[in-house]
Design goal:
Layout (H helix, E strand, L loop, with lengths): L4 E5 L3 H12 L3 E5 L12 H4 L16 H22 L7 E8 L12 E2 L2 H7 L9 E9 L2 H15 L2 E3 L6 E4 L4 E4 L4 E4 L1 E4 L5 H4 L12 E11 L8 E3 L4 E4 L3 E5 L13 H12 L10 E11 L6 E4 L5 E5 L5 H16 L21
Parallel strand pairs: 1-2, 1-10, 2-6, 3-12, 10-17
Antiparallel strand pairs: 3-5, 4-5, 7-8, 8-9, 11-14, 11-15, 13-14, 16-17
Helix pairs in contact: 1-5, 1-8, 3-5, 3-8
The structure holds flavin-adenine dinucleotide.
């Protein structure tokens, strides 16, 4: 039996990771991307992201922890496959995070990690001014999401996925056994379709009666990119209210989480306040040269959980709403969504993420 033709709307980390997984399973997959994959200028979340794999972040909703752990465990194999297909390595920039908390939990809280004393902290990050906070260290690597996106795109193409950039989906029409995606250039008819257009996902369903099942909300995040300072910074560091991510060639300071509609401009006063906030912990960073700044739109949802599952139309699926964790959750979401689209039982329960939770009768 020939495999069904599959079309994915959205070429961010979620759409491309799913495309690669489906292609591996023998599908003919097309990805339609409105701009260029990895272009930060139009608000896509993936290239704007800080790229922290916050597997044990205490801020996660409890229902998401299993999916976070599952996805994190898939990362080594995922990156190895990308490297094999694309010839591009996506390295971890560091492996551990230092995070400040106002209160002191039990000595070694599993989620917070290992509680550090002043001497340990000084040894790990000599330039860090700890203030009154309690500092913990835990495994939380990060990678550069722009490198990840470029490697994913190259891997998809090498594997035979048809990735079409500058191909915006303008509307969808639903038949008994297929979905038609209308772009300015063509009509793509798919037996299976997955909506993975990030913060724009809900809007793409237009006036369909099941559009309320995908209530994505853009949550803007602004980031400042600084030159690397003279002294080395070996960890990602999260003082209360901001974070710092050191990379091979620069340093990210983030980030806001705002309701600002689809506005993707950065605001000078917000960028100033990010630099001022990090300078309380690293005074030298007050005067380090700025290299860049940008904003991205996280795909938020009313309950801060992703939307992963089947839509009421035959052959229609959705994978979006990854909010603050789409880089972490990409390999896991690709697996569970490919399982669903293959009519297989996913390794992780998707009950908490079902689009049906947003229907009028729950
Ligand atoms: C400032 C910031 C910091 C972050 N930090 C982290 C972090 O440290 N760790 C982490 O795990 N996550 C982080 N995130 C979240 C993460 O970036 C997102 O959850 C993830 O990138 C979502 O991926 P996506 O593919 O769903 O969406 P996107 O990357 O937004 O991709 C959606 C794509 O769909 C395309 N599209 C939209 N409409 C259409 C259409 N009509 N037709 C065709 N294509 C369309 C868009 O152009 C876009 O390329 C951060 C996000 C931001 C903004």
């Amino acid at each position: 039996m020939p495999s069904p033709s599959t079309v994915i709307a959205g070429g961010g980390v979620i759409g491309l990771s799913l495309a690669l997984e489906l292609q591996k399973r023998g599908r003919a997959v097309t990805v339609l991307e409105r701009h260029h994959c990895g272009d930060v200028t139009h608000g896509a979340a993936t290239p704007a992201s800080a790229g922290i794999l916050g597997v044990d972040d205490p801020g996660h909703p409890a229902q998401m922890q299993e999916l976070c752990s599952y996805s994190y465990a898939l990362y080594p194999e995922f990156l190895a496959r990308l490297a094999e297909l694309s010839g591009r390595a996506v390295p971890f920039d560091h492996t551990h995070l230092l995070e400040a908390f106002a209160d002191c939990a039990a000595e070694d809280d599993r989620e917070r990690g290992e509680l550090l004393n002043a001497e340990q902290l000084r040894e790990l990050e000599p330039e860090l001014i700890p203030g009154d906070a309690h500092w913990y260290r835990r495994e939380e690597p990060s990678l550069d999401p722009r490198l990840l996106c470029a490697a994913l795109l190259a891997a998809c193409r090498a594997a035979g996925v048809d990735v079409r950039e500058n191909e915006p989906v303008m509307s969808l029409t639903f038949g008994a056994n297929e979905v038609s995606l209308h772009t300015p250039h063509a009509v793509y008819v798919a037996e299976q379709f997955c909506l993975a257009a990030g913060a724009w996902s809900g809007g793409l369903l237009g006036a369909q009666d099941f559009a309320p099942l995908v209530p994505t909300v853009p949550r803007r995040g602004q980031i400042l990119c600084l030159q690397l300072p003279q002294h080395p910074i070996r960890h990602a560091v999260r003082p209360i209210g901001c974070y710092l991510v050191p990379r091979a060639t620069n340093l990210l300071i983030g980030s806001t989480v705002e309701f600002a509609g689809f506005e993707v401009a950065t605001q000078p006063e917000v960028i100033d306040s990010l630099q001022a906030a990090i300078a309380q912990s690293y005074p030298a960073l007050a005067s380090v040269q700025r290299l860049d700044q940008w904003a991205g739109l996280r795909p938020g949802t009313p309950d801060d959980l992703p939307i992963l599952g089947a839509l009421p139309q035959p052959g229609c699926f959705v994978s979006t709403g990854h909010f603050r964790n789409g880089i972490l959750l990409a390999p896991g979401s690709a697996q569970v969504m490919a399982d669903l689209m293959d009519s297989r039982e996913p390794a992780v329960s998707l009950e908490a993420f079902a689009p049906a939770r947003f229907s009028a009768d729950g």
